[in-house]
């Protein structure tokens, strides 16, 4: 009755922009690692910890934000999480001590982890005819963020200005982090001007607020000042909820999900999220570092050096500078920025194809293809010997694994009802961030000596995730018995 029109496209734009801001926040650390390594005297292990700090925050935050979204509201959770991400990102931009930087990245990750709620928020405004397609369009916005981020980094980080005042030092990478924080704060303000999810309000028995929300959407879609034809809802009274403490409520909400008829679906989605997200962040956050090492090798050795695989080339970056006693070099080769932009552009075809054909082929089909395809590309990374081969496989891996993770959020929105949806999506995200945290530490520990281990783990987890998708229901909630 509210119609389908301009409001729904506007909220798609807001939620999509929020997802792009998440891409900025999460992946900006991949440029921070090589550009700030000298200021903080970072080894590979330190870089792994820095990459993992955001994942640690996201791991702890995802679980909590899911409960907040199911108890206080989708919009409420999104506003708080984006403000937290923006504020701590700005603080991290002026950090002068490594532990402070780690803490700020951790808190920023804690905040941005709540952004997974946007799938529930958007999906609960959209009717079943358009829901899957709209949710799948979110991947295009993530891709836009992935493409735009290296453009901003390329513009800012190579600048050579240096502001010093006593202990305080401000360089180009500091400015880059500040710029990446602004989208979160801007979107938090725009979210304040939007209504809460009507399905959430309805599930909480807030009939008057539900009517107000529907009036808002009705007037926007129909561009009219006429009153919404519905004046009351004949539904059960307000749901009686026990007045529990935050921790008790969080515990009961979690137990309620895993003791309900949806427990099997919840367990499978958590395992898939763990495997897929571990694999994705193990490699994606290290792409600039790996490309920088490949470029160093190719410029240091003009002729072939008979390298047989990537691991031998990558390990030389650690040993060679020690031989010639080079000073710390935090310059990022110009080709790295261009390569990351190319990887982002390579994601556009999958981001367009999935929304256009998802209603015909289904979410499961695209999930299986994306996970198995990205798993194969991860395995082939071991055999590359040039930056060009690295670029091609990295593009394939990013395009397929990224869309697969986004589709996992889409299928969770479809599989779980309103009262469980926020918690189910967030718990799955929590398991994913546990894997991402562990994966980045594994890469930091093994990248110099045994890089075959991260590659093997990434490949295996993606293939297992693809096979587990086949155990999920083919369509939405109506097929779950």
From TrEMBL:
Residues 9-477 form the Major facilitator superfamily (MFS) profile domain. InterPro entries: MFS, MFS_dom, MFS_sugar_transport-like, MFS_trans_sf. It is found in: Membrane. SUPFAM superfamilies: MFS general substrate transporter (SSF103473). One of its GO terms (cellular component) is membrane. The chain crosses the membrane at residues 7-29, 49-69, 76-94, 100-122, 134-157, 172-192, 264-287, 336-358, 365-385, 391-412, 424-447, 453-472. Its main location: membrane. It is a multi-pass membrane protein. It holds the Pfam family Sugar_tr. One of its GO terms (molecular function) is transmembrane transporter activity. The keyword Transport applies. Keywords: Membrane, Transmembrane, Transmembrane helix, Transport. Belongs to the major facilitator superfamily. This is Major facilitator superfamily (MFS) profile domain-containing protein.
């Amino acid at each position: 009755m509210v119609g389908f029109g301009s409001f729904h496209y506007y909220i798609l734009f807001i939620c999509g922009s929020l997802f792009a801001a998440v891409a900025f926040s999460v992946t900006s650390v991949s440029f921070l690692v090589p550009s700030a390594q000298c200021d903080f005297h970072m080894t590979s292990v330190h870089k792994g910890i820095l990459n993992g700090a955001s994942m640690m925050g996201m791991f702890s935050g995802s679980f909590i934000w899911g409960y907040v979204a199911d108890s206080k509201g989708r919009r409420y959770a999104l506003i708080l999480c984006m403000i937290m991400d923006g504020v701590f990102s700005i603080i991290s931009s002026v950090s002068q001590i490594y532990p402070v930087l780690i803490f700020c990245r951790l808190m920023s990750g804690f905040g941005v982890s709540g952004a997974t709620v946007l799938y529930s928020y958007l999906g609960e405004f959209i009717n079943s005819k358009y829901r899957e397609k709209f949710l799948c369009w979110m991947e295009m916005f993530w891709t836009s963020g992935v493409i735009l981020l290296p453009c901003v980094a390329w513009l800012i980080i190579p600048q050579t200005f240096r502001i010093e005042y006593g202990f305080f030092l401000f360089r180009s990478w500091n400015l880059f982090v500040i710029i990446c924080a602004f989208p979160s704060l801007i979107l938090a303000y725009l979210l304040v001007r939007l209504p809460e999810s009507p399905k959430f309000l309805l599930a909480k028995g807030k009939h008057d607020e539900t009517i107000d929300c529907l009036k808002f959407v009705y007037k926007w879609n129909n561009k009219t000042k006429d009153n919404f034809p519905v004046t009351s809802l004949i539904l059960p009274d307000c749901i009686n909820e026990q007045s529990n403490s935050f921790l008790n409520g969080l515990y009961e909400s979690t137990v309620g999900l895993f003791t309900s008829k949806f427990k099997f679906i919840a367990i499978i989605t958590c395992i898939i999220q763990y495997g897929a997200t571990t694999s994705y962040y193990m490699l994606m956050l290290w792409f600039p570092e790996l490309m920088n090492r490949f470029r160093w090798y190719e410029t240091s050795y003009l002729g072939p050096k008979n390298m047989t695989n990537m691991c031998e080339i990558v390990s030389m970056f650690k040993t060679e500078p020690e031989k010639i006693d080079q000073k710390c070099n935090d310059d990022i080769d110009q080709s790295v920025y261009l390569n990351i932009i190319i990887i982002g552009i390579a994601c556009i075809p999958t981001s367009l194809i999935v929304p256009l054909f998802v209603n015909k082929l289904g979410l499961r089909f695209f999930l299986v293809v994306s996970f198995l395809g990205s798993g194969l590309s991860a395995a082939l990374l071991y055999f590359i010997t040039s930056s060009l081969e690295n670029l091609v496989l990295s593009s394939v891996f990013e395009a397929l694994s990224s869309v697969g993770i986004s589709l996992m959020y889409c299928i969770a929105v479809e599989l779980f009802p309103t009262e469980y949806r926020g918690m189910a999506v967030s718990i799955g995200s929590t398991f994913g961030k546990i894997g991402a945290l562990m994966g980045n530490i594994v890469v930091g520990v093994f990248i110099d000596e045994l890089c075959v281990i991260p590659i093997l783990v990434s490949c295996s987890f993606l293939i297992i995730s693809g096979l587990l998708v086949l155990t999920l229901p083919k369509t939405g909630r109506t097929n779950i018995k």
